Amino acid sequence: MRITAVTCVKNEGPFLLEWTAFNRLIGVTDHLFYSNDCSDGTDDLLDALAARGLCQHLPNPAQGRNYQMEALKDSRRHDIVTTADWVWIADVDEFLNIHVGDHTIPALIDACGNPQAISVNFQFFANDGTEGFEDRPVIEQFTKSHNPDIWCGEAAIEVKSLMRHDFPLKYFGAHRPFAKGKERPEWTDGSGRKVPHKFLVAANPRRLRRFPAHGARELATLNHYALRSLDSYLVKNDRGDVNREHRAFDDTYWRERNDPAWEDISIARYLPDLKKALAELKKDKEIKALHDEAVKRHLAKRDELLAQPEYQQMQAQLRTASTLPPQEEALLVELGLMEPAA
Questions:
Q1: What is the maximum alpha-carbon separation in the chain?
Q2: Rounded to the nearest 10 degrees, what angle do helices 285-305 and 42-51 cross at?
């Protein structure tokens, strides 16, 4: 079975080897990376991986700011996508945690009855007080999350999707494919159940890319490490924001994903094989050197940012931010169950 993962990256150098090695463990056979405006060596590392047949690497074709959708549109021109049995569209901070069979994508497909698409709900993993970047697997470092059935008071949680080659595709979305006309493809959630009808037909604008997670994760969960360490989050924030001077920092995104109420270590089942795979990749001296250089540049960017008062303030704000999402905190205040923040 050929399974192609498609992703877009910008300055993800320290995390590329883990994500690629993990995906290969779960059955991904091919990777298509689109990159843009990288300054941490991401492009160089991807080129080296491509030279060894471990991925394909292309410049992002976007002319404006819609980098992901333009890349997904372009991906449909390439054999690595058109000849795949299945396509998996995800980001480098997202790991498909499969709970069934041998914990691979083929096992998940089989357990779901081989539908034309499978959409798996996110579970957002918290920073949980981790300040410094460490060059070791992200899936090992972060084990706390929100209640996986409820996020920010919502029962409907976003998904990412696997798509079979015969899906009646109109176009790829970042979270789900969209079907042509009135086609009704076979489509399941992460428990092998049919997805809700309104999701299937994209009838509800508020839930185009989400549905209730309760009962939908028996066979698989999508672990999302959107925050990682505080160091890495500062660098991530800079990546999409050229100039923060004289502007207040909104910590909503951080707070919404930093709820450590739940512990989930199920993905640790992959760690022994993942560490072996990473060690094998790093036996290649060029690959190791490029990875190490990306780590060095990641930390140098952190130091550069923390020389700026705006980022010092941001760091201090995030260190002390409530781990309650703003929506939940507002509700507790309204109900008189807690005092408003000073």
A1: 61
A2: 170
In the chain, % helix, strand, coil (3-state, to 5) comes to 35, 20, 45
CB 109 within 8 A of CB 192: no
Q: What are 255's two structure tokens? A: 């707070």
DSSP code of residue 15: G
Phi-psi sector, 323: left (phi>0), alpha (psi -120 to 50), beta: alpha
Q: Comparing C-alpha atoms, which of 277, 119, 106, 264 is closest to residue 185?
A: 119
Beta bridge mates, 122: 222
Q: Is 278 exposed, middle or buried (0-12, 13-18, 19+ CB in 10 A)?
A: middle
Classified as helix, coil or strand, 169 is strand
Q: Structure tokens of 140?
A: 């090992």
Residues 161/120, Cβ–Cβ less than 8 Å: yes
Give Cβ neighbours of residue 27 (< 8 Å, ≥ 6 apart).
1, 3, 104, 105, 106
Tokens read off for 283: 């036996």
Residue 97's beta-bridge partner residues?
221
16-63 per-position pLDDT tens digit: 999 999 999 999 999 999 999 999 999 999 999 999 999 999 999 988
Instruction: Assess whether pLDDT exceeds 50 at residue 181.
Output: yes
Cα dihedral angle (72, 76, 79, 83), rounded to 10 degrees?
Answer: 110
pLDDT digits (tens, 9 = 90+) for 127-179: 999 999 999 999 999 999 999 999 998 999 999 999 999 999 999 999 999 99
Whether 134 contacts 231, CB under 8 Å: no
pLDDT at 240 over 80: no
Of 195-199, 244-248, 270-274, give the lowest mean pLDDT range.
244-248
* Full-model pTM: 0.95
C-alpha R_g of the chain: 20
Q: Which residue is listed with tokens 């396509």? A: 87
Token pair listed for 330 = 């507002």
